[in-house]
Design a protein that fits this description.
By secondary structure, the chain is mostly helical. 75% of the residues lie in helices and 0% in strands.
C-alpha cells in the first residue's frame, strides 16, 4: 500500500512539473480541432443546441415529456440543455482521451522521456475549455429565464469532479487501447447506454428505486443532476451524493494514475 502511494505521489509530481507543457498542448489541440472550420469554436454552442432541438422535438413534442416540478420551470428544452451540456463534456473528454496515446504514437515512441501521462489530461483540458463556451451561453439563457441563485457557483465544483473523473478514466482507457484497439469502440457503446440511463432527459424520480440505486453509482449521474439543480432549482444535490461524487472521482483518478504508470513501460514496444 505504501509503495503504491509513493509511486502515485511521484506520478503527480511529474504531472506538476509538466504543467506548462500541458497548458501549451491543450491550447494547440483546441486550435487544431477547429482549424479550417467555418464556425470555429462556435461549434461548442451549435452542437448542444442542435441536439437539444432534436431530442427536445422527440421527447418534448412527440412523447410530450414534462420537466419535473423540482426544477421550477415548464421549459423542457431548458431542463434538457442543462443536462446535456455537462454530459457532452464528459462524453467527448472520455472518448477523445481514450485514444490519446494511440493517436500520438509517434511522440510516445520517438520522444525519449516524453511524459505520455499528460496526453489524456491535455485532451480533457481542451474539452473543458470548449465546455466553458457552451456553459457561458447556458448561463446567459438561465439568467434570461430568471433562474438566478447563489447555488449557481456549485457548477464549478461539479465540473471539477467531472474532469478529475474523466482524467482517471482517460488514463485507464488510453493505456488499455494500446494493447486492445477495440476499447474505443466499446467505450462508444457504453457512453451511448449511459447517456440514456442518466438524468439528461428525465428526472431521477422516473427510475424505479432498485434501478436508481444502481445508476447512482455513476459519478456523472450526480454531475448532471447537480447542474440541473444548481442552475434551475436553486439548490444542490444531497450531501451524501456530493461526498460520493468527490470520493469516487478521486479514487478513479488515483486508480487510473497507478494503472497508467504500470502499463506505460510497454507502450513504445507495442505501438
Amino acid at each position: 500500500m505504501m509503495k503504491n502511494l509513493f509511486i502515485f505521489f511521484d506520478f503527480i509530481k511529474k504531472l506538476i512539473r509538466s504543467r506548462s507543457m500541458i497548458r501549451t498542448m491543450a491550447v494547440r489541440e483546441l486550435k487544431a480541432r477547429y482549424i479550417g472550420s467555418l464556425f470555429g469554436v462556435f461549434w461548442a454552442v451549435l452542437n448542444p443546441v442542435a441536439e437539444v432541438v432534436i431530442y427536445g422535438m422527440v421527447f418534448g413534442v412527440f412523447f410530450k415529456s414534462k420537466p419535473d416540478p423540482i426544477y421550477g420551470t415548464d421549459s423542457y428544452m431548458l431542463v434538457l440543455l442543462c443536462g446535456l451540456i455537462p454530459w457532452q463534456f464528459f462524453s467527448q473528454a472520455v472518448m477523445s482521451s481514450s485514444g490519446s496515446i494511440v493517436s500520438n504514437s509517434n511522440i510516445v515512441k520517438k520522444a525519449v522521456g516524453f511524459p505520455s501521462e499528460i496526453l489524456p489530461i491535455v485532451t480533457v483540458i481542451s474539452n473543458m475549455i470548449n465546455h466553458f463556451v457552451s456553459l457561458g451561453i447556458l448561463l446567459v439563457i438561465v439568467v434570461f429565464f430568471g433562474k438566478v441563485s447563489v447555488y449557481m457557483f456549485m457548477v464549478g465544483f461539479y465540473l471539477f469532479f467531472a474532469a478529475v473523473f474523466s482524467i482517471g478514466l482517460g488514463w485507464i482507457l488510453s493505456s488499455l487501447s494500446v494493447f486492445l484497439r477495440d476499447v474505443q469502440q466499446v467505450v462508444g457503446l457504453v457512453m451511448m447506454a449511459l447517456f440514456f440511463l442518466s438524468p439528461v432527459f428525465y428526472s431521477p424520480s422516473v427510475f424505479p428505486k432498485p434501478m436508481l440505486m444502481f445508476l447512482r453509482l455513476n459519478p456523472m449521474f450526480h454531475v448532471v443532476q447537480g447542474y440541473k439543480l444548481a442552475l434551475l432549482a436553486g439548490t444542490i444535490i444531497p450531501a451524501g451524493d456530493f461526498i460520493y461524487l468527490a470520493a469516487s472521482s478521486f479514487v478513479t483518478f488515483g486508480i487510473g494514475g497507478l494503472f497508467f504508470k504500470k502499463l506505460k513501460p510497454a507502450f513504445a514496444e507495442v505501438l
